[in-house]
Design goal:
EC number: 3.-.-.-
Shape: globular
Helix content: 25-40%
Number of helices: 9
Organism: Flavobacterium gyeonganense
CATH superfamily of the largest domain: Glycoside hydrolase/deacetylase
Number of domains: 2
GO molecular function, one term: hydrolase activity
CATH architecture of the largest domain: Alpha-Beta Barrel
CATH topology of the largest domain: TIM Barrel
Protein name: Polysaccharide deacetylase family protein
Radius of gyration: 21 Å
Enzyme class: hydrolase
Number of strands: 12
Order of helices and strands: HHEHEHHEHEEEEEHEEEHEH
Strand content: 15-25%
Distance between the termini: 22 Å
Length: 273
C-alpha cells in the first residue's frame, strides 16, 4: 500500500513536489517498511504453554480458537493429560496449534534451590546424556503419532540445560527446529540462539504488564515468546484467565501490526530471513 501511494503521488504531483520533498517522503516510506520485519508486521508474538494441563484443552485452546490464534503447547510425554486425551490434542494440532516436546518425564536438576518437587526418578542431575536424549526422542515419536508432523520445537523442563556440564540438546539439534529457554530479552534476528530462544516467564502477570512487554518488543523491532503454565488454575505458576483473554483481545486489535504464530513457525521464519 505504501509503495502504491508513493507511485501515485510521484506520478500525479511530480510538477509540484520539489525533489527534497520526494526524498523525504521516500525516506519515510523506507523507514516504515523497514520496521515490518516480521512476516510483514512490526513484531512477532509466540504464546507457549507448558506441562500439558487439562486447562489448556478445556479453556486455553477454545479461547485461542475464538481469536483465531495458534499456540504452542509443550507436552510431557508421560502425562496422563496426554495419554487420556490424545484425540483432543490431535484435534488441536489439526487446528494449527503446535505440539512441542517437553520431554518424557520432565526431569529437572534436584540440586537447585526450591526443587523439592523433583523425585529421584525425575532428577536431571542423576540422568546420563544418553537417557535424556533417548527419552526426548521417544516423546518426539509419540507426538508424531498424534499430529503426524516432523517439525517441532523443544522446551527445557525447569530451564535446565546441562547434565554434568554437558548441554544435552547438542545431541538433539537435528531432531528440532529450535529449543525454547527461560531467559527473557529482546533480540534481533541475527542474535537468536536457536538452542536457547528467549522467553518471558509469566506468573501472576496482568494483561497490562504483558501488553507492555509486547509493545517493548515492537519498539525494539523484535519478538516476544510468552511462557505460561496455568491459565486460570491447575498449576502453582498461574495467570488469571481473564488477564489472558485481555492479552488476546489486544493482540487481535493489533493484528495489522503484530504477527501471532507458533514457536516452530517463528523459528523457521527467523532462520529463513
Amino acid at each position: 500500500m505504501t509503495r502504491l501511494l508513493y507511485k501515485l503521488l510521484n506520478r500525479n504531483l511530480k510538477n509540484i513536489i520539489v525533489p527534497g520533498m520526494v526524498f523525504l517522503f521516500s525516506v519515510a516510506v523506507f523507514a516504515q517498511e523497514q520496521k515490518r520485519n516480521w512476516n510483514g508486521k512490526k513484531c512477532a508474538v509466540v504464546l507457549t504453554y507448558d506441562d500439558a494441563l487439562n486447562i489448556h484443552l478445556d479453556k486455553v485452546i477454545p479461547m485461542l480458537n475464538s481469536y483465531q490464534f495458534k499456540g504452542t503447547f509443550y507436552l510431557i510425554g508421560s502425562s496422563p493429560v496426554v495419554s487420556l486425551r490424545i484425540e483432543e490434542w490431535r484435534t488441536a494440532a489439526k487446528q494449527g496449534h503446535e505440539l512441542g516436546n517437553h520431554t518424557l518425564n520432565h526431569p529437572c536438576n534436584g540440586n537447585m534451590p526450591g526443587r523439592e518437587f523433583v523425585t529421584s526418578e525425575t532428577d536431571l542431575s542423576k540422568y546420563t546424556v544418553a537417557r535424556a536424549v533417548k527419552e526426548t526422542q521417544i516423546t518426539n515419536t509419540l507426538l508424531k503419532a498424534i499430529d503426524g508432523k516432523n517439525e517441532r520445537t523443544f522446551a527445557y523442563p525447569c530451564g535446565d540445560f546441562t547434565i554434568n556440564d554437558t548441554l544435552y540438546y547438542n545431541f538433539l539439534k537435528n531432531d528440532f527446529v529450535a529449543a525454547r529457554g527461560v531467559s527473557s530479552g529482546y533480540l534481533n534476528k541475527k542474535e537468536v540462539d536457536f538452542s536457547n530462544i528467549n522467553s518471558f516467564f509469566e506468573n501472576g502477570s496482568t494483561a497490562e504488564q504483558m501488553i507492555a512487554q509486547v509493545e517493548e518488543a515492537e519498539k525494539k523491532d523484535s519478538f516476544i515468546v510468552f511462557l505460561f503454565h496455568g491459565v486460570g488454575g491447575e498449576h502453582a505458576l498461574n495467570i488469571d484467565l481473564e488477564e489472558h483473554r485481555k492479552l488476546l483481545e489486544y493482540l487481535k486489535k493489533r493484528k495489522k501490526d503484530i504477527w501471532v504464530a507458533t514457536m516452530v513457525d517463528v523459528a523457521k521464519y527467523i532462520k529463513d530471513n
